[in-house]
Amino acid sequence: MSYRLSSKQLRGLTLCAILAAGQAAAQPASAPSSQAQCKGTIYLSFDTGSQSQAELIEQTLLRHHIKATFFLANEKTIHGDYSLDPGWQPLWKRLAEEGHAFGTHTFDHVYVVRDLPDGKIEVRPQFGAQAGSKQQWTPAQYCEEMTRVDKRFQELTGRKLDPLWRAPGGKLTPNLLKAGEACGYAHVAWAPAGFSGDELPSDKFPNDALLKKALNGLKDGDIFLAHMGIWSRKDPWAPAVLEPLISGLEQKGFCFATLREHPAYRHLFAGAKER
């Protein structure tokens, strides 16, 4: 049986089609539908810092539908407070709700100096009551320093950290690595091509050169490191480099994921409920 539509019905269908097309065009670009479409995956990671680029980083990741991994320490910020103070709660809570991953970077951004006898570690905190002074810590003391971040993060967001950590400066010793493992955290470094260079002086390492190096060097599976603001760099990295870096990698067919999906770490999350 066939039906013939009246002119009034045809006009109604045409109007519906136009409205539907307009609504579709108004929708934001969607994330890649499948990792199978990717030529490779890059794992963006950001350490805390001066926090001068924090909101810019968040908005750039949102615009590109990218999830990254953040390593948190309680560092002094451009606002005169510290990055894990209550004033930064809205940022951390939003990032958690947006699906990013989070690891510990030690609460007082504690650098390792050297290993000591009996498994102890000589360290030098950058912030906190012992800032700038060398301390002799046991593995249990270092573990407590790492878990301080987790406790604060739970207070700010209601969520636990992922079982990931990054030593300040990426510096490790055998005793320090054992201390982290005993505390339940897997250490995360970065690929040679994944060093953003945002800590380097901008007169010797300009942003355009750092961008070119990253675009030419990054490959499938690489972990990329940048900071949420660096005090010493006169020409900030993120405003100039982050957007073109992501766009350039997307044009090459790369996708992005958190370290929860990285082959070296995803076993830590097998069977875990979504955070």
UniProtKB/TrEMBL annotation:
Pfam families in the record: Polysacc_deac_1
Keyword terms of this UniProt record: Signal
Keyword Coiled coil in record: no
InterPro entries per the UniProt record, alphabetical: Glyco_hydro/deAcase_b/a-brl (IPR011330), NODB_dom (IPR002509), Polysacc_deacetylase_ArnD (IPR050248)
NodB homology domain boundaries: 40-257
Signal peptide range in chain numbering: 1-26
GO terms of biological process kind: carbohydrate metabolic process
GO molecular function annotations of the record: hydrolase activity, acting on carbon-nitrogen (but not peptide) bonds
Signal is among the record's keywords: yes
Name listed for the protein in its UniProt record: Peptidase A8
